[in-house]
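INFO batch 0412 | record 1 of 1 | parsing
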Amino acid sequence: MSITHIKTNKKIEVLLRLLASNENLADASSKSGLNIEKTKIILNNNNKNN
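INFO prediction complete | emitting tokens
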């Protein structure tokens, strides 16, 4: 299955697992199928909510 056919919430789960495994942000974003700018927005919104 292509990463483009996966819902965004699943992509975020993959991103978080990669980051927890010490993957750098750019590589984790790419591997999870998320745009780096979108990833930064998601992380910034999460930081504001916590």
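INFO post-check: The CA atoms of residues 2 and 33 lie 10 Å apart.
INFO record closed
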